[in-house]
Design goal:
Layout (H helix, E strand, L loop, with lengths): L1 H10 L5 H4 L7 H5 L10 H7 L2 H21 L6
Helix pairs in contact: 1-5
């Protein structure tokens, strides 16, 4: 779920993936800079992934896939 949320602006080509790292309207900078916050719990995801660098790699590796899903989502029956 976090991948989907963090990639959403890049999925719709609203901005590049690199610009997302510094986008202050998402929680991604907290993950990338390992910033602790009472409202955003980054520990569970970073614990699973391993590090901010690995999380970024996880996002990069899935961007094309998420864009493809976005293109065909209107073809799926509910």
């Amino acid at each position: 779920m976090s991948r989907y949320i963090h990639l959403n602006p890049a999925t719709s080509f609203e901005m590049s993936l690199d610009n997302l790292k510094n986008l202050n309207i998402t929680s991604l900078p907290f993950y990338m800079n390992n910033i602790q916050n009472n409202m955003i719990k980054i520990e569970p995801i970073l614990k699973l992934i391993g590090s901010p660098e690995k999380y970024w790699q996880f996002l990069e590796n899935q961007l094309d896939y998420q864009r493809k899903l976005n293109k065909i989502k209107h073809l799926i029956l509910d």
